[in-house]
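Collaborator request, handled under Task 6.
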Amino acid sequence: MADVEMKPVDKPGDDKPSEEEQKLPPPTPVADIKANVALIERAVSTLEPRFTHRVLRSLTALRHRLDARVLRTAVEEVYTNSDSLSRAALLAWIPAAEQSMDIDSTPAPGAIPTPAKAQPEPLPECEIYFRLLLIHYLLAAPSGPDPAALKLAHETVERMQALNRRSMDPLAAKVWYAVERAYELCGELADARTLFLAAQRTASLRHDDETQASLINRLLRSYLHYSLYDQADKLVSKTSFPASAGNPQFARYHYFLGRIKAVQLNYTAAHTNLQQAIRRAPAPRTAPGFFQAVHKLFVVVELLMGDIPERSLFRHPVLEKALSAYFDIVKAVRAGSLSQFQSTLSAHAAQFEADKTYTLIVRLRQNVIKTGIRRLSLSYSRISLRDICVKLHLDSEEDAEYIVGKAIRDGVIEGRIVHERGWMECAGRKSGYGPEVSDVFARRIAYCLELHNQSVKAMRYPLNAHRKELAAAEGAREREKELAKEIQEGDLDEDGPDLGEGF
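Structure tokens returned to the collaborator:
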């Protein structure tokens, strides 16, 4: 019998990849750009815009890794034809980058040159994508926004409108955002409004929902930047936001609606819109600036509604530092201290002005005074107007009398003002029983009964269901008649079993 050679048994951990294979280096920005170009070409060839959306989702992370060398290398590797007009147009916008080392491209003597294969020209969507990257790169220059970004943005819009390809719609929405950033950083945001209005009209006629949603948000941001709330409200009333827009666009739209409604004293609608903006917004770590801006306005609107925000909101790691000034305002409103409110307002006035919430926070003065009066009415059964003026830091007794009278009329407190004595008499706490309580209880019962009746009326029943029941009952009666007839004729006794057997 021949000897059999035994193979060594592999150890259990030998099939695992090595540390070098586990720690693969991340792809370079040039590799990411080339992969995104391939995805864009795949989206155009297969008519699947989801590949373009995948590219645009990585735009935020990619634009922070761009520099002149990366852009130049990416353009040269994608546009291999040196005679390409698109390549020359893109390279003209890229600043000259210093080469780290000179590479001798002279062929060796005697070497046979290999003919280069003619690569097809990339699609126009790839050119628009490169222009989008260039705009963001010029706007994020270390020395400040480059004025050439505005000229490049205009040229990109003209190029995009001249091509008129529907496969560019997802890219067009991002391009319009870059155009707005270029105008805003150059201090000419008002001049872009006419351009946005014309593009929005064209997008609505073409049913380009993504571009239309982006342009509506661009216009609302332009109006609110210059405090043109009436024009922003007219734009909202005259247009309909596309229902197929993405969550980021919806989040911005609801945030702008919340700002408009808050200025118009419609705090309930503003609170609802801001809640929708928070729910649709990206993760806090992904977009911390937007997350903080929405919560700043959300806290102020809740205070104007008479509610106190939860303390856990101010402990969020993304919001803790940004909402520190608003937390001081919340503490002043909750304590009902007008002096603390005024000192906090003056200390953080610059931040509130930058956040565009100063005018809304000034309205909280009445809420602070109402809270202070409510606390005094619970502590004293009778208090002079002079003491109210001193405790609430009001200017005069006439102001105290007016504020107390308005609080009594609004139902904040229960009491009356005695003008002859110059004091306020507070009504004692009512018991839990009485005609008022019974009336409230009766209204609640009536509401529940009405809700039950409306629910029963709104229920849907299958059509002609009663006919099936009637047919079933008619069949049962026929079977009973046949059974009785068989019993009378004696057929059941002859054919059927003996019921008496076994007894």
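The cover message to the collaborator said: "The chain has 25 helices and three strands. The first strand starts at residue 382 and ends at 384. Please let us know whether this matches your experimental observations."
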